[in-house]
Amino acid sequence: MSTARFSPFELLLLKSRSQVDTATLLLLGWVLVHRQHVSEGQRRRRLAQVTSQFRHGHELGPVMSIAHSQDLHAIQLAAEVVRKECSKERSLSVMHQAITVATDDGDISLANHYILRFLADLLNVAPATLGTLFQELTGQPLRQPEDPSRDAYWQAHDPDYYARKAREEAEAAQRAKASQAEQEQQQRAKADKQQEKKQKQQEKKQQKEDARRAKARAEQSSAEQKAEKARAEQARQEQARQERARQEQARQEESRQRQQRSSPPPPDRTTRALAVLGLTPGASKTDVRRAYRRMAQLHHPDRFYSDSEHQVALASARFQRIKNAYDYLMQTY
After folding, report:
1. Entry pTM
2. How is the chain split into domains, by residue range?
3. How many beta carbons lie within 10 A of that of residue 325, not counting itself?
4. Integer-rounded Cα radius of gyration of the chain
5. What is the pLDDT of residues 285-324, one digit of tens each?
């Protein structure tokens, strides 16, 4: 079967003569890598001393490499193996070994505070039992770990904390100030760009307006020129018409004068009245009566009542001329 699917710790478990020993090795190595001021050689020698009776049958180097890598999957698997296989006595032995490697120098790191409590909970070791075991092995009570979120912790463990924190705050303030200045510069650049764009739009709009006004003035000037030409042409035509009218009037006057000089004088009213009745000058009063009765019977409007209104109107006009001529002649004779 191929081993490519297995992690390094799973391969160690497969090759181990005692899986619970290999799992305990990893948990103790996990404690050792969180010891402060300890070299790697010291860690491996200490682990070998503590686990000299183990029956795992493999080197410690791969276990320490896995512990240094902080492979949580491997640590979880080791914890499951230990919890499943360990008896109560073996659980207390593992806790004894873990406390020993965590407190060799008389001090315990913050991380190992939590790791010891995790192992005790994993192995069903009560907190009171853990405290008692810790007191017996170190001569000191297992106090609650310090809270790294409090300033007092860093004041005690890192004297340069406040200076570094002040530097970090100053750097953060400087970065914020630089960022704000950059944002303000970007905003000014953006505002300048918008202003420039707006100014260009206004200039373009003004150019269009100027072009429109120039075109309107040109059109107005052209219209005025056309109107002036039209007025001039109208005046010329009017003058020509008046001249033609004067010439026509002169010709008519001259023609009338020629007619007056060449034609006989127009007949008088009596002659015209006799002509209306169809008589010639010298007719008697009796001839006038006879002619009137004949003409009245012939042209009376009642004879044309069935014709159109126009014909009736013409008949009425003729009859009125005949009667006017008769009345005039009867008064004259």
Report:
1. 0.44
2. 8-145, 269-332
3. 23
4. 70
5. 889 899 888 988 888 888 877 778 888 788 888 889 988 9
